[in-house]
Each structure stands twice: as structure tokens, then as C-alpha cells.
Amino acid sequence: MKKIGDQWSARSPLPPRSRWWESPAVRRHVAKKIIPGGTESGYWHVEALQRAGRTFPAALSVGCGNAFQEIALLRAGVVEHFDLFELAPRMIMDAKEAALKAGVRDRIQFHFGDFFTSAKNRPGSYDLVFWSGSLHHMFDANAAVAVSREILKGKGVFYCNEFVGANHFQYPTLEIMIANGVRSVLPREVFRIPGKDSYWETGAGRPPLEAMMHYDPSEAADSENILPAIREHFPGAPVIPLGGVVYNLALMDILTNIPEDCGLLRDLLAIDDEANDRGLFHYAFCMAEKA
To answer: Please, what are the domains in the chain?
Structure first.
């Protein structure tokens, strides 16, 4: 656990907009799959939970990072109080500072450590369990989803917005072929590394598994079992595929060189939609109520 926390605390900054969630245009595109008409910012967590038509007195988030989504839910009045768990000390420091500035620090209890071994892991304790970009770091997705259900009160809500692709990013051959087909027709300058006279590789592929395990063994540790776990513990819950083969795999890094809202980006997102419609996606969204 310490190694994982240290890795997240020590991560070096990447070029701007090198990841899809840093692109408002991509976020807005994805948001339309969840919120009718989408959202102006491309962040859908507040509106998605507002549509439940209720407030949540006690909420939990495991692996909160800098907690910007949780803080937004508190400010919007959707959540009254959050228990936030995180393994990276730097992330907790940043989250505490942001919560103080937002005026919600008194409505958050921060916890440095593992929720699953903590005293907070008690049946029927929470009205909302909020997973956003952290469930795919759990080593046993089925166990994490099972506990999520157990700790919810009756009619409590399980919120899941996650990477659900291949474990440790060992993408299937078909997804790599699609990504490389996309990259093969892009202009050479799209691959130039910002501030350098060098280029990223034109091909996409699987990251070396040994390097992945050394850098962060929790990265997509059991991600491909998230959806089966949801189907088991929240049977009948609606799951919305959110794409990602193009915007996540094909455009990783090079997205920084593709302008927002340009025709090229719109065309690439249309290709992503086609893959998504055929059952090829990296991300999915689910909100389920405990029966």
C-alpha cells in the first residue's frame, strides 16, 4: 500500500491535455452518454446524482485523489458529509487545501489508509458509495463491489464511473488494431513531443506488464472484472458504455497536439462511438440503488 501511495505522490506532470479527462471537448462528448444534452463543463457527477432527486447525508469515497468531484458534490448540496480515504499523502494535503478554500472542510473526514481494513467498514453505514476513477485500482473488484453493497443503507446508491478495460492495460489485439489504424492516418506533427525536437511512437500497444507491475501494481489491477461484479451484486443495474478505444488508447499523449473542438477531434470521437456501439470500450458508468 505504501508503494502505491508513494507512486501517486511522486508522479511527474505530463504535457497539458495529454489525457482525455483534461480535454473539455472529450469530456463533453462522453457526458452526453450519461446526461441528456451533456454538460457545459463535461463533468457529470453532480448532475447525475442530482437526477436521483435526493440528498445523501453520509457518503464514502475510496481513493479520492484531490477530491475535486467530492468537493463539488458537497458544494452543490447533493452530499452532506463525506468520508474520504486516500493512500497518497500529497493528494490528501491537496484535497484538504481545496476543501478549505471551497468552504466544505468541516463536512469531510479524511482518512489516510485502507478503507477495507478500517473501522469505517461497517454494514449499513452509508447513503452513497462513490467510485470515480479508483475502483479499477482495487486488487479484487468483486470483493470491493460486494463490500460497497454491504455498507450501503437500504435504498443507498452505488455510483461507479470507471475504467473497465483490460487488466494492467493489456489491451486485446482488436483494440490495438483500431488504435493503430487511427494513428496511422494522423499528421506527423501530431506526434511531436511539446518543447522537444522528438516524436512519440506512431504505434499504440500494450505497456510492458513487468514495468506496469513495478511502477504501480494497482493500475487496472482487476478492472476487467468490475462489470461482472456489478452484474452479480447489483443485478439489473443499467450500465452505460462510455467508449475510450480511440480517445483513451489511440489519442494518449498526442491529444495535447489536437485542438479543442476541431473537425479532426470530432471525427475521431465519431470513430470512438462506432467502436463503443460494437461493444469495444474502456470506460463505463453505473448508478444502482440497493434494493
So the answer is: 2-289 (3.40.50.150)
Contact (CB, 8 A) for 247 and 269: yes
Q: Is 56 left (phi over 0), alpha (psi -120 to 50) or beta?
A: beta
pLDDT for residue 10: 46
Task: Give the span between the Cα atoms of 151 and 120, in whole angstroms.
Answer: 9
Count of CB atoms within 10 A of residue 226's CB? Answer: 26
CA distance 254 to 29: 18
> Cβ distance 42 to 69 under 8 Å?
no
Contact criterion met (CB below 8 Å) for 288 and 237 = yes
Residue 161 phi/psi, 5-degree rounding, is -130, 100
User: CB-hemisphere CA count at 13 Å for 145?
Assistant: 26
Low-confidence ranges of the chain (pLDDT < 50): 5, 8-10
Asked whether the beta carbons of 15 and 253 are under 8 A apart, the reply is yes
In whole angstroms, what separates CA 31 from the centre of its chain? 13
* Contacts of 247 by beta carbon, 8 Å cutoff, 6+ apart: 20, 26, 29, 30, 255, 268, 269, 272
- For strand 152-163 and strand 283-289, is the pairing parallel, antiparallel, or unpaired? antiparallel
